[in-house]
Amino acid sequence: MVLSRDADYAHYLYTCNRCRSCTTNRGRASVIVCPSYAHLGYFSYSGGGKGYVAQGILEGKVKASPEVAEVAMHCLLCHACQTMCPPGFELITVVRQLREWLVSRGIYGSLAHRQLLDNLRNCGNMWGLAPLKRISAKKLGLSTRPRNTEAVLFLGCHCGFKKSSLESELKIIAAARAKVMVLEDEPCCGNPALELGDQGLFQEMAEKTIKRLNALGVEKVVTICPHCTSALVNDYLEIGELEPEVVHFSEWFLELIDEGRLKLAKQAPKLIATFQDSCHLTRYLERGDVAREVLQQIGGLELIEMNRSGDAAFCCGAGSWGEELVPELWRFTVRERLREAAGTGASALIVTCPYCERSFQKARPKKMEVTSLARLVASQLKD
Ligand code: SF4
Ligand code: SF4
């Protein structure tokens, strides 16, 4: 149901009072949490502003145009606006549906937008890579059989083509002697299709993934990428029942540590670090504190939080493929976030999302190492 007056969220569009709380951290005007608003400074680019554009469309006052696409795409889908809006308006649904409305009329934000969707439809992944190029289970040294398996490792498209990006996770799995399997030709979770405006494709991809995972009879799915976690846990609810429990790798660490299967060194070199909340883990799923609990178990680590952290965290810039779709917004956001991280005095920035890691690495941070939680945990494993 694209931008319909009958949609569940439609009445929100008429009760928004333009209080602008969706742009800042709980009314503190100096603490802007919406990257799009911070970048351009106009309310129309905020979550609430996009709601007004949607209202104009419903009333027939706004027509599909490149200008509307510009507003709809100038967004990282970071969820800060929805989290901060006092009545909790479903602004993420509004932005997604705005994009779907445009795409269904053949209007894309850019050539890159169209290309990413074509890649998804034709190759089943955003990168346009041949599915055969996915890393094989054999190369990972993992099974593809569900028998005696405690979890399915869902690699996601970001890590599924590059074994080097999974080294720490594989080390942790070996240390915990975990019986983990992977899908031989893992499908995309569909999150990109939903975020870029193709609900039909998302539905197709989600149905396929639900069927594949349910057929295994395995109790748990462990995801590497928080975008996959969020899709499997939240977005699949409207598509069908996914039987296994879904947890992100950071949550699984904690389980393995609590069960005594992962032992971390108590004595470790001192490290002063700060932490980047993943928008999907912290805001979409409200599971951000789990990673912090893992960090507490790491000897020698001193965590200094950034001013904007937890559910008020500023996005890394990579949300909703910001780097590819709105490069100037990505550059602004990642640089601002790296400045904030450097301001804590920390020498390391810890991430739980491969997209955050890629975004920060690409912006070439000075005097600051960007490291994943998995790499940190793997480096602290007791022999
Ligand atoms: S915070 Fe909510 S009610 Fe206030 S302007 Fe934003 S969308 Fe409207
Ligand atoms: S999702 Fe993030 S970038 Fe998009 S409007 Fe909301 S706060 Fe701004």
What does this structure look like?
Helix content is 45%, strand content 10%. α10 crosses α20 and α14 crosses α16. The strands form three sheets. The chain has a four-stranded parallel β-sheet. A four-stranded parallel β-sheet has the order 8-7-9-10, with helices on both faces. The protein starts with 9 loop residues before the first helix and ends with a helix. It is built from 20 helices and ten strands. With 383 residues, it is an alpha/beta fold. The chain has three domains: 10-103, Alpha-helical ferredoxin (Fumarate Reductase Iron-sulfur Protein, Chain B, domain 2, Orthogonal Bundle), CATH 1.10.1060; 113-258, 3-Layer(aba) Sandwich (Rossmann fold), CATH 3.40.50.1860; 271-379, 3-Layer(aba) Sandwich (Rossmann fold), CATH 3.40.50. It is globular, with a radius of gyration of 21 Å. The mean pLDDT is 94. The structure holds iron/sulfur cluster (2 copies). One iron/sulfur cluster binds at residues 16-22, 47-48, 51, 85, 87, 89.
What bound compounds does this protein have?
iron/sulfur cluster
Task: Please report which band the strand proportion falls in: under 5%, 5-15%, 15-25%, 25-35%, 35-45% or over 45%.
Answer: 5-15%
Low-confidence stretches: none
Give the total of beta strands. 10
For the record, the CATH architecture of the largest domain stands as 3-Layer(aba) Sandwich
Rg on CA atoms, Å: 21 Å
Q: How confident overall, as mean pLDDT?
A: 94
The coarse silhouette is globular
Q: Tell me the number of helical segments per DSSP (H or I, 4 or more residues long).
A: 20
Largest sheet: 4 strands, parallel
Q: Which structural class best describes the helix and strand composition?
A: alpha/beta
Intertermini distance: 55 Å
Determine the fraction of residues in helical runs and give it as a percent range: 40-55%
CATH domain class name of the largest domain: Alpha Beta
